[in-house]
Design goal:
mainly alpha; 5 helices; binds zinc ion
């Protein structure tokens, strides 16, 4: 891959993007903010390590999950993506006594 077609990760990190770049398929140059957010929360080396632990056919889903978590952690540093689900549960709260809650940690 030439420098003009570096992935968003390599462009952000200002390095050459090689043919075997682990991040290139999941962080295309068309979405630079996605990697910037992921890098800020998890760090590039940790993201590489996490993706390499996952089978290749599931890496796309793992990258989406990592990006989702990073996005929400940036928006809500305290609760992260749990904060988004807490907001949903408040909006769609079950009527009292309808069924038990899944656990004491649930809002
Ligand atoms: Zn790359």
């Amino acid at each position: 891959m030439s420098n003009s077609t570096r992935c968003a990760a390599c462009r952000y990190l200002r390095r050459r993007c090689t043919e075997d770049c682990v991040l290139a398929p999941y962080f295309p140059s068309t979405h630079p903010d996605r990697f910037a957010c992921v890098h800020r929360i998890f760090g590039a080396s940790n993201v590489c390590r996490m993706l390499q632990l996952v089978p290749v056919e599931q890496r796309g889903q793992a990258a989406d999950s990592i990006a989702y978590e990073a996005y929400w952690r940036m928006r809500d540093p305290v609760y992260g993506c749990v904060g988004s689900s807490r907001g949903c549960s408040r909006r769609y709260r079950r009527p009292r006594g309808s069924s038990p809650r899944p656990g004491p940690w649930w809002p």
